[in-house]
Write a structure and sequence with these properties.
- This protein is mainly beta.
- The chain contains one helix and 18 strands.
- The strands form three sheets. Strands 1-2-5-8-11-14-17 form a seven-stranded parallel β-sheet, with no helix packed on it.
- The longest helix has 9 residues, at 25-33.
Length: 196
């Protein structure tokens, strides 16, 4: 159960376990790729900062990703540089991930086949994902996409709540495969290509 702090002024050589010695976003990306986060870990991202690049988590969780400090939500952006069907935050076969108080976008034009914000993959099984109070969008397709890959795999227990979702080429929240117990509530949608 470790809490990691991330800041625009952080460093990959820092311990990351205090506000005084935070990581940078590159360290989070690296740790995610090597499954370096453990059950119960928390990643807190400093408000008022902008963080560029994709973070992809596989077979990790429970995991909490949120914000600390004062000011505007931290902005995590793909800066329009993601490949087809990638996302700024990607999760594959993760169990119990809580995401809150972030702005996540890709700054990409519609219909370029990149998922801007959060991609919940279902190569195996994804369970109990919550996304709360986030500003999501600027997506080629969906801001939140539940599933891609095997149509027989499972996404179950996803909650998208109190989010602002905008500027999506397709749906604001969409999915593919076997979806169960998916709840979207108290969200505001605008400039959505096809629907919510």
């Amino acid at each position: 159960l470790t809490t990691y702090y991330v800041s625009p002024t952080g460093s990959a050589s820092n311990a990351g376990t205090s506000e005084a010695l935070p990581w940078n976003w590159t360290k989070v990306q690296t740790q995610a790729l090597v499954n370096g986060f453990f059950s119960g870990d928390t990643i807190l991202i400093q408000r008022g900062g902008t963080y560029t690049g994709r973070a992809y988590f596989e077979e990790q969780g429970p995991l909490t990703i949120g914000a600390y400090g004062s000011g505007a939500r931290p902005i995590i952006t793909g800066a329009g540089a993601l490949s087809a069907f990638q996302a700024v935050l990607g999760f594959d076969s993760c169990d119990r991930v809580d995401i809150a108080d972030l702005t996540v976008r890709n700054e990409i034009q519609a219909n370029t086949y990149a998922v801007a914000s959060v991609h919940i993959l279902n190569q195996y099984k994804v369970r109990r994902i919550t996304i709360r109070r986030c500003d999501l969008g600027y997506a080629g397709l969906e801001a939140v996409f539940l599933g891609y890959g095997s149509a027989w795999a499972t996404n179950e227990g996803a909650l998208v709540e109190g989010c602002t979702i905008s500027y999506c080429g397709d749906n604001g929240v969409g999915g593919y495969g076997y979806l169960r117990d998916i709840v979207v509530r108290r969200c505001a949608f605008s400039y959505i290509g096809r629907g919510t």
